[in-house]
Amino acid sequence: LSGTHGTYRLDRVLGQGGFGITYAAFHPEQNRMTAVKEYFPVRCTLRNPDRTVIPKPGREEEYQAGLDSFSREAQMLAALGNFPSVVQVLDCFQANGTAYLVMEYLDGVPLHQKAAQMGGRIPPEELFPKLPALLRDLEAIHQLGVLHRDITPDNIMWMPDGTLKLLDFGSARYSIGDKSKSLDVILKVGYAPKEQYIRRSRQGPYTDVYSCAACLYAAITGYLPPESL
Fold it and tell me: Which residues of the chain have pLDDT under 70?
């Protein structure tokens, strides 16, 4: 796979959702592993034998709109800069009829898996000292006008050195000015504040703060937070 900053050898699938596939990929020029996210909305996409991606008949407009949005958001994330507690975006480009976002490869475990390894709950004295660095970087991203909008225990990675990393900005959007009024409804029950249940409801940094607090609640109690409504 040829990108802006060299080539990537796709080794295996790390995960797949409704809108994309994430691969573990090797970057030979930099001699490092990366994670490559491919835009692949399953409801409107087909893959040819030569690996190129095309929209399903009658879904061309839907596919193109999603592709344009994915590409814009990839460029937005690539322009954010390097924050130690946030997964670093290395490259973004279009190829094979679709678009790709290249990120650093993280070899940690998601917060919910870490809790399971520790008997279902993470002691507060273990978790709380790790939070300031993560929250400072999240605040810095908010000051740039970007919302994550999908902070859940599976999007917070507990790294081998004991630090936390925030990942999966697939739902991120700019929140500057009136743009925040028209954000799509994206939510996960227990972690989503009430404004995410209402289409065209204004969202802001407080949206991510609520989700962060819900993640902490789940991690230290072992219980899913009550639904915000």
Answer: 169-187
Q: Which of 62, 94, 49, 60 is nearest to 75 (CA)?
A: 94
- Give CA–CA dist 22/96, Å, rounded: 16
Q: Are 104 and 86 in contact (CB under 8 A)?
A: no
Q: Provide the whole-model pTM.
A: 0.80
Strand residue runs (E) in the chain: 2-3, 6-7, 9-16, 20-27, 32-39, 45-47, 53-55, 89-95, 98-104, 109-110, 146-147, 156-158, 164-166, 173-174
Q: Give the sign of the dihedral formed by CA 81, CA 85, CA 86, CA 91.
A: positive
Residue 162 token pair = 């004991």
Q: Where are the alpha helices (DSSP H) in the chain?
A: 60-78, 111-117, 124-127, 131-143, 205-221
State whether residue 213 is helix, strand or coil: helix
